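## retry 2 of 3
previous attempt timed out at serialization; input unchanged, resubmitting
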Amino acid sequence: MTIPALIATLTAVGAAVGWLEHSWLTGGHYLKDGDPRRLTRTPPRILTCATVAGLFAAAAHLPTSALAPVLLLATAAPALAWIDWDVHRLPNAILGPLTGAMAIIMVATSALTGHWHDLLTALAGAGIGLGCGLLLAVLKVGLGAGDIKLLVPLGLAGGWISWTTLMHVITYALVVNGLLLAALLAVKVISRGRAAMGPGLLLGALVALLLSGCLPASPASPASPASPAGRGAAAAAGDARRVLEALPVRDADADDGYTRAWFGPKYSDDLSAAIPSARNGCDQRNDVRRRDALTKTIRPGTRGCVVAQGTYHDPYTGAVVDQPHTQLEHVVSLHAAYVTGGRHLPPQTRRDLAGDPLNLLIISGSANASKRESDTWEPPNRQFRCPLVARQIAVKAKYRLWVTPDEHRHMARVLAGCPAQPLPTEADVAPPSPRP
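## retry succeeded, writing output
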């Protein structure tokens, strides 16, 4: 589904959810039997619908794995904020099911992806949220029991995305809440003894969560990278500078939990059908060697797969080297991919990223040794700087990765010298088929 279609769908779903939520809210279903503390004022139905619809639409650019927990929080937020504002309570009838549903979704997602580290980070986030609430309660800054419990699902959602997002969620929640209360006190909308903390905490946390992924994705990758359409379209679209300007720009995630095994076995041929040379009976290293070799000798008895000897033009240095002095290079390193969105990809897509010929080159061992993982590294061969940046952009767009601010500035500076630099296409990078 394209991003505009996803936004439209989520907006419509959010409006419907808001309509149902308003009916549930005005019916007092959040109350225990005999509890007299019903709403003294009912929010306009259109306000509830518009709020939920807007939050759902803003969440469209979040990573797929983060979408469901944030949508649950966005669903509950208007009801929680209004109840707390009106009758100064955050009912367990909402907080309990909200926290439980988020946890169940996270456990199920971790079981499907095999990445349990995200769940551990989310649980740590819940603990940090609870700890911050208890500390502030001890310091007597006005947080009640409901506010402390609210920080648990907020921390859970932030930790599920990343440590950085968790810190932003806690910070934004507390800072925005403080600023909102100060503004309301200044204009005498509330008095010091009647300050509801829930609305400000929810507002700040949702801002942090939505900002963690709501920047537009590249139009060159309109479909999900898990689908053949999404992976085939990105590399074939437009000039490099235009696609770069459409890529999200964000700080790198923490690299906690990264291992090479996260992207599957080395040189695996078990890739999806959208990847050139996938499942052709030859590993990706030899596929790329056959593609990049200036001269080559195929080892007999390997059905045209294994390159026994070859010479290669190292694009990083411009030198010609023989095969024993070469290495397989990821244009976007797997570590760099991991911290710029790769940690959220499903298992097959991670394996595809590691084995995609678009992301692989044969280079000299000396060039690889001199290269350091950096957002601003440039190959000594000046003629390859523009093609290298274009290829990195194509990989980022194809797999819906973002670029860091330093990376974006570097790429823009390089492309300023070659503004019409095209992106490589699948046909440009496809290895030749083995010939038995």
